[in-house]
Design a protein that fits this description.
Blueprint lengths: L1 H23 L26 E4 L3 H17 L5 E5 L2 H10 L1 H5 L3 E5 L5 H11 L3 E5 L5 H9 L4 E6 L3 H9 L1 H9 L3 E4 L2 H9 L7 E3 L13 H12 L5 E7 L3 H12 L7 E6 L5 H10 L4 E3 L14 E3 L6 H6 L3 E4 L12 H5 L3 E4 L7 H9 L3 E2 L6 H10 L1 H17 L3 H13 L1
Parallel strand pairs: 1-2, 1-4, 2-3, 4-5, 5-6, 6-7, 8-9, 8-12, 9-11, 10-11, 12-13, 13-14
């Protein structure tokens, strides 16, 4: 009965969902494209009995890359179908797997809306041998459709915050059958595993594999590229990067930056907005403060002048390069109630990391980084003092960077464990 009402409400909401997408398409045209795919209307060009990976958006797509690469290596004759729900996630899939898509090894499509007839059509088209859902993106009808067609489901790199667990518990009649339909929950941490257990997942289905976010692959050429970028910016300039910023955080960091200029007049601030539709609005905020702005899209191959104060990274797919060029990395989504973004990329690059108090998406990871002296977690009022101290003391930055890199190295191996689980189920 609960699923019946869920389906009815979802069906009635479709016109409003489409209207919202059309309106968002004014700033991000991708939302107005490929609507047929969201109704499971597409031509599948891959091979059946492959692997289905749902990675939602940018963060999950980037995190899933080492696992997808491992599966491509282990199953070279299989098609891996990667689904997302956002245009930015779709862009990342195309960027990461351009050659694999051309070779027919990777197929990409939007995940259809979670209605039974759409999900049934979708699973029938691609006929996967297994479905991997990344992290927490659980929908009742994709799970039910997989169950009906005997497609095993792994919730990979699974995480469940205390807040999300309480939300699931409120709608137990809908969420319990959904969770019980999972064949395996590969949890990031023991705390995540315990929450899934409390929500009714059988203990025999739960394993703790760790977070695949620790299995970061840093390209060998990155140091050289970062050094070239530092030369463009001014080799001796201190660089502060705000990574994956959300509305409200740009103003915060700009307030702090303007105060820091009295001590560090050559400090360069790099802002990397999380969503491309915000590029122009963030540029306007910077210019309204009468700061000297350079946009990366307009200066990729040119040197900055010494007067440039703020560098707006209005391109996609360059986060590792920008972080590699930083002296201090501030992780966005953490100074508003969003739960934070991944701090491990900066740690893998031996950078001093600062993250705000809203970290529920990475609670276990951020606590580990704090305990090991790899990250600081100031609130809004403490941010100025925290950054001043880090910019003033290169020894502290170096120590934090080395500690962060060690945490990353000590926790690697989740990709191998997950790959083994997938192969054991398939075979």
């Amino acid at each position: 009965m609960a699923r019946f009402f869920y389906n009815m409400v979802f069906t009635l909401a479709i016109p409003l969902i489409l209207l919202r997408m059309w309106l968002r398409g004014g700033a991000s045209p991708g939302y107005r494209q490929r609507w047929a795919e969201r109704f499971a209307l597409f031509k599948f060009t891959g091979q059946s009995h492959g692997i289905l990976v749902h990675s939602v958006s940018v963060g999950e797509t980037l995190a899933a890359e080492p696992l997808v690469r491992s599966l491509l290596s282990a199953k070279p004759d299989s098609t891996i179908t990667i689904t997302t729900t956002t245009p930015t996630g779709s862009d990342q899939v195309k960027r990461l797997y351009k050659q694999d898509m051309a070779a027919g090894r990777v197929f990409h499509v939007y995940l259809p809306y979670d209605l039974p007839w759409l999900m049934s059509r979708f699973i029938n088209k691609i006929r996967p041998s297994i479905c991997l859902i990344m992290e927490t993106e659980l929908w009742p009808n994709i799970i039910r459709s997989c169950n009906k067609q005997n497609v095993p489901i792994i919730l990979a790199n699974a995480r469940l915050s205390e807040k999300s667990a309480k939300g699931y518990a409120k709608f137990a009649k809908l969420t319990q059958p959904m969770l019980q339909g999972l064949d395996r929950v590969a949890a990031q941490h023991h705390n995540d595993a315990e929450r899934f257990l409390q929500l009714g997942v059988n203990a025999s289905k739960i394993t703790v594999t760790g977070s695949i976010k620790f299995d970061i692959q840093v390209p060998n050429s990155l140091d050289e590229q970062a050094e070239a970028l530092k030369q463009q910016w001014g080799k001796d300039r201190l660089v502060l990067v705000l990574a994956s910023s959300h509305e409200g955080e740009d103003d915060l960091i700009l307030d702090v930056y303007q105060q820091l200029l009295s001590t560090f007049p050559d400090l360069l601030l790099v802002i990397v907005p999380r969503h491309p539709e915000r590029f122009d609005s963030v540029a306007a905020i910077i210019l309204n403060r009468e700061l000297v702005l350079t946009r990366r899209s307009e200066s990729v191959n040119s040197e900055l002048t010494a007067t440039t104060q703020v560098y707006l990274a209005d391109t996609m797919g360059e986060m590792l390069l920008l972080l590699a060029s930083a002296d201090v990395a501030v992780i966005g989504g953490s100074f508003i109630e969003h739960g934070g973004h991944n701090p491990l990329e900066a740690c893998a690059l031996s950078k001093a990391v600062v993250m705000g108090p809203s970290d529920y998406n990475f609670a276990a990871i951020s606590q580990q980084l704090i305990d090991q002296g790899a990250m600081q977690q100031p609130n809004r009022k403490q941010l100025n003092t925290c950054l001043w101290q880090l910019l003033e003391r290169p020894d502290m930055r170096e120590e934090m960077g080395l500690n962060g890199l060690q945490v990353v190295k000590n926790n690697q191996g989740a990709v191998q464990r997950l790959t083994q689980q997938v192969l054991s189920i398939i075979e």
